UniProtKB/TrEMBL annotation:
UniProt keyword ATP-binding, yes or no: no
Organismal lineage: Bacteria, Pseudomonadati, Pseudomonadota, Gammaproteobacteria, Celerinatantimonadaceae
Protein name according to UniProt: ADP-ribose diphosphatase
Keyword flag Metal-binding: no
Residue span(s) of domain Nudix hydrolase: 43-184
Stored Pfam families: NUDIX
Family recorded in the similarity comment: Belongs to the Nudix hydrolase family.
Keywords of this entry: Hydrolase
Domain of life of the source: Bacteria
Co-factor requirement: Mg(2+)
GO CC term (a single one): cytosol
SUPFAM superfamilies associated with the record: Nudix
GO biological process, one term: nucleoside phosphate metabolic process
């Protein structure tokens, strides 16, 4: 049986940047215990990640600089959902901005969160199939490098240091499971 959620006694912004706010919450649990928690509050619209599949049974990935790790990371295309966009629209836009393709077929794999104890942002992960060339101008500061890998070899990405982002790894496993069930 689910427990009763804690009661919020006080809530305020503890810090703020251009992208995030840190919110402080004073909570009282059903057993009377009180604690202060902090959480990151980001874009409320969420984000998308796309696993693009080519007609040649390859996956497309992007190599992009990640400031937090101070290195170039390899991941699937991803980005924020803009105001007024549905998640699939955002996915198609990000696909065009980051790798120069749009897709005719879409499959939603799952909505995931990263560190839900501290950050409530959700990301919807899609498979994009039946790709066709279409480019939109993105907001990246430099051109992204696109890499391909055969679906049959895609788990070898796990051996690469630059393939380390947890949501991308989760997307790879979810894709592989979906592919084995529906496309083989």
């Amino acid at each position: 049986m689910p427990k009763k959620k804690p009661k919020i006694l006080e809530q305020h912004i503890a810090a703020q940047s251009h992208f995030f706010q840190i919110e402080s919450l004073h909570l009282e649990f059903s057993n009377g215990e009180r604690r202060v928690y902090e959480r990151l509050v980001g874009g409320q619209r969420g984000a998308v990640m796309i696993v693009p599949v080519t007609a040649d049974r390859e996956l497309l990935l992007v190599r992009e600089y990640a400031v937090a790790t101070d290195r170039y990371e390899l991941s699937f295309p991803k980005g924020a959902i803009d105001a007024g966009e549905e998640p699939q629209q955002a996915a198609n836009r990000e696909l065009q901005e980051e790798i120069g393709f749009a897709a005719q077929k879409w499959h939603m794999l799952k909505e995931v969160t990263a560190a839900p104890s501290y950050f409530g942002g959700a990301m919807q992960i899609f498979v994009a199939d039946e790709l066709y060339p279409s480019r939109l101008l993105g907001d990246e500061p430099e051109p992204l490098v696109i890499e391909t890998i055969a679906i049959d070899e895609c788990l070898s990405l796990l051996e690469r240091k630059e393939f380390s982002e947890a949501r991308t790894i989760a997307a790879l496993f979810m894709f592989k499971q979906w592919w084995q069930k529906t496309c083989k």
